[in-house]
Structures are given as structure tokens and as C-alpha cells.
Automatic annotation (TrEMBL):
<dbReference type="InterPro" id="IPR013100">
    <property type="entry name" value="LEH"/>
</dbReference>
<feature type="domain" description="Limonene-1,2-epoxide hydrolase">
    <location>
        <begin position="4"/>
        <end position="118"/>
    </location>
</feature>
<protein>
    <submittedName>
        <fullName>Nuclear transport factor 2 family protein</fullName>
    </submittedName>
</protein>
<dbReference type="Pfam" id="PF07858">
    <property type="entry name" value="LEH"/>
</dbReference>
<dbReference type="InterPro" id="IPR032710">
    <property type="entry name" value="NTF2-like_dom_sf"/>
</dbReference>
Length: 119
């Protein structure tokens, strides 16, 4: 499977709320960096972070995707259903895929915009 296909499958699992399947595509020692927040290390740290987010549905819309070698870049709108409403943020994602798993996952977004929508 190509690096781009791995990332597309990962996003598909996120959108289907298949967290275990999505996490299975992360390397055990993944580096997960939500750039305005502290960097997380390891699949279990990523699992803990995702588990504490207060959403019951997700719709990550990929506007553009580009891959070169093991690096995949995504321009997305990440939508989350929280309570009775959808919140969304624009995201630039950078993924590195090694041996069929995501070894680095970086998302760049405006944290203040996200937090204001949660309030």
C-alpha cells in the first residue's frame, strides 16, 4: 500500500469512528504533534488524547492531498460533532509513513479558533 493510501485509510477510519482500526495504522512509537500543543510519543499516548476529545462523530474533509516518497500532506477541514452541533477547523496535516504505518503525524491548526467553538 502506498503512503497516500495508508493516510486515506487512516482518515476513513477516523470518519467511521473506527478508532482501533485508525490507531492500528500508527507505528508503536509514532510521534503525534498537534503543533500548537505538546508533542505526544507512542500509539497509546495518541489513543489517550483522542479518547478525551468530546465528540461523537467526525468528518475530516480532505480538500487536497499530495505525496512524495513516504511523506503525505493533507489540506483538510476537520469537523467534529459535539453535543448538538458541528465544530470545524482548517488543518494542514503532514504524515510520514514507514513500513505501512504512520510514524509521524503533524497537524497545524488554530487552537484558539477550536477552543472558542468548544466554549
Amino acid at each position: 500500500m502506498t503512503a497516500q493510501a495508508v493516510v486515506e485509510q487512516f482518515i476513513g477510519h477516523i470518519n467511521a469512528m473506527e478508532t482501533d482500526a485508525a490507531l492500528a495504522l500508527l507505528a508503536d512509537d509514532v510521534v503525534y504533534d498537534n503543533v500548537p500543543m505538546p508533542t505526544l510519543h507512542g500509539r497509546e499516548a495518541a489513543r489517550a488524547f483522542l479518547a478525551q476529545l468530546p465528540y461523537d462523530a467526525a468528518a475530516w474533509i480532505v480538500h487536497a492531498i499530495a505525496a512524495t516518497g513516504d511523506t503525505v500532506l493533507t489540506e483538510r477541514t476537520d469537523r467534529f460533532h459535539v453535543g448538538s452541533r458541528w465544530i470545524e477547523i482548517r488543518v494542514m496535516g503532514a504524515f510520514v509513513v514507514r513500513e505501512g504505518r504512520i510514524s509521524h503525524w503533524r497537524d497545524y491548526f488554530d487552537l484558539q479558533q477550536f477552543m472558542a467553538q468548544l466554549a
